Amino acid sequence: MMSLVPGYTYCRLSYTVKHALRSISTTPLLNKKQGAVDLDNYTPIYKFKYIRAARLLCRLKLYQTGLTIASIPLVNSLSTQGLVNESELSNVVVISVIALGMLGVMGELCRKLIGFMYIDKSGENLRVAHLTFFGNRRDIIIPVNDVVLVEELPDELTDIYIRMRTYSNKYNFLFTLRFGEVLDVESFKKVFGKVS
Asked: Biggest alpha carbon distance in the chain?
């Protein structure tokens, strides 16, 4: 369990299996300052179409990491038995280190990827659903006035991804308009400013 950042409310996730696919339901965590989050009070404004594929990649990344880490002791034991020579052992170690580095970079990218954004009925809070390093969903509530407008960022709207930053520098996420879908244009403009 991670510590709560003052002024932000986190939501705990529970998973249920439905027809061999996992559907995600959220239950709010209580924050003593803000009380419970009313999840019915939010309207979706953005959806990343391929969030399930990104989640699957995050989960597969974990298994690949395990296999990569397990390969080094296996090849080392084969080397001590004389079945594998030293150059093959060093090749496996180098390839494993490079693979682990790439898996770490991919995990960090997936951690910052936004799947859904919701705005509450009052227009004051933005609920951001993003992936964790392990491929789970985490919802974070951010005040709308803390979100940096898109026009203040160096990113172009035609880029593959656009950064979503906060003025308090607590969060730095990524979303895409090329592969994502804006569900409510007016609310999206209220949060991110002029989007054309």
From this structure: 70
**Helices 51-80 and 86-112 meet at what angle, rounded to 10?**
160
Q: What is the pLDDT of residue 133?
A: 83
Report the chain's mean pLDDT, rounded to a whole number. 78
In order of 123, 139, 144, 161, 181, the CA distances from 45 in angstroms are 11, 15, 13, 17, 8
Q: In whole angstroms, what is the distance from residue 146 CA to residue 143 CA?
A: 5
User: Are 116 and 51 a contacting pair, CB within 8 Å?
Assistant: yes
Question: Which 3 state secondary structure label does DSSP give 185?
Answer: helix
The tens digit of pLDDT for each residue in 20-75 reads 233 333 333 333 334 444 567 899 999 999 989 988 888 888 888 888 889 889 99
Considering only CA atoms, which of 101, 105, 94 is closest in space to residue 72? Answer: 94
Domain limits of the chain? Answer: 55-110
